[in-house]
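User: structure tokens for this one?
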Amino acid sequence: MAVFFLLVCLAVAILTIAGTWQVFVKAGKPGWGCLIPIYNLYLMIKIAGRPGWWLILACIPLINLIVLFILPFDIARNFGRSASFGLGLLLLPFVFYPVLGLGDAQYLAPSPGTSA
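Assistant:
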């Protein structure tokens, strides 16, 4: 039973990595960036259309909760998805990132001035 559970966890992890990799590629970022801690957060911030200094905010306790709450909604918006899809990215990333990355969603680069 433990081997089955480990295989399921491995399959979910691989699917999540593949989906996130494709999200990065669709946004014009290096796909391998999803594997590097901190750098992947920086790339997510850029994909969300936020300024790079938000990475500093993401390192401040309690403020990081706000930043990490906002990012999935911005990413969903920049891929032409709804706020409810952003909620899915926040709560079930192992389902919604593969849907976003491996599906037909196209990255819509944020307009200058829309990132606050």
